[in-house]
Hints:
The chain is an alpha/beta fold. The chain folds into 3 domains: 7-72; 79-205, Rossmann fold (3-Layer(aba) Sandwich); 277-396. 53% of the residues lie in helices and 13% in strands. It is built from 17 helices and 11 strands. It has helices at residues 4-36, 43-57, 64-72, 79-93, 110-120, 137-140, 157-170, 184-193, 208-211, 214-224, 255-258, 279-291, 294-304, 312-323, 328-333, 340-352, 368-390; strands at residues 75-77, 98-102, 129-131, 145-153, 174-183, 198-205, 243-245, 263-264, 267-268, 356-359, 362-365. A 5-stranded parallel β-sheet has the order 3-2-4-5-6. Strands 1-7 form a two-stranded parallel ribbon. β4, α7 (157-170) and β5 (174-183) form a beta-alpha-beta unit.
Amino acid sequence: MLGIYxxxxxxxxxxxxxxxxxxxxILLNAVQDVVRNIKFDNKLDEEIFTSRLYKYARNDExxxxxxxxxxxxxxxxxxxxxxxxxxxxxxxxYSESIALVDYKEKSHSSSxxxxxxxxxxxxxxxxxxIKITGLTQNIIERFDKILFIDDYIGSGETIISYxxxxxxxxxxxxxxxxxxACQKNAKDNISKKYPQINIIxxxxxxxxxxxxxxxxxxxxxxxCNCCKDKRMKFGYNRTGAYVVLNKTAPNSDIxxxxxxxxxxxxxKWIKLFDREVSLEILCKKNNSIIKNNSIIxxxxxxxxxxxxxxxxxxxxFLVYSYGCYYTIDQLxxxxxxxxxxxxxxxxxxxxxxxYITIKNGCIIISNNLLYNDIEKVIDSLFKENEKNKKGITHxx
Length: 396
């Protein structure tokens, strides 16, 4: 017969397991409450964000409500809204005396993209588009208005630095900065430096410290102060922004949203958004890193296979589930599973072994030790990827 101590231990273990499952369901429900209030372009974006937000909330489960409340206050800026604003504005003010300055001169920059949009819409002539490095007194003479355009201005430091370079050439003209969104402190900085410049924008944004409750500000400060990149703790130049720009996070945002260098309470902080790429592209990037490091993945599996009763395929599947998002159709298209029946049996086995649970179609690694081990595997794959990139040489 079992002793009293053993019975108590088993009871505690059962209670802890039930509590753990209930806690995960509560957390996922809270995540989905946030997701429901965000308008996504498509179902895939919503599913990817749900999966990522759940992982993000697990950064600090003790304070998940506070963390999710901060996320719920993020301001989302979408390309279609930005495009609509600029097309409408240019149609309203257009004349042949207006010059559009491509001040960033990078094909992938937001400024260049918007100028291309305006050109493709037939709202300007090619001779009205001027690259800032080619801006001369002779070229500018035929124009009365100079437009600098961008989708978002954070600290204002970048656009000020470009205007400084050409100020002597353009200072006699009417200069207008047109942007969809602009931080209030950026407007103040630009107006202080160049009071004669007119700033046109759709929305003006405050710092987090002007909009959040005191307890939230304290919490944000606590986490952001753990960012190793001192320049970016509270956004570049301490901008303190909290915007989502075309499903990315500009470097003006508080670091807890996007910076990968935060270590909070001894644990690496999982970022919610990437600085450069959208969540969907980030998933594809993660997928590529995982697939291109199959030998390392096998080594990690060999280290763990005695710890968990997992086949390599199951282990690989859990790494995919954690590192990037797959729909059932994508897994079938990639020949990962031959049929939906095989997929169902595969997943049911993982559920029976209490490695995962599924809630509203979201795969959750429910075994905490396994979750932490998979997180370490992902981290090591990304470190290996970065090491390989830095180790590339061009000796021929």
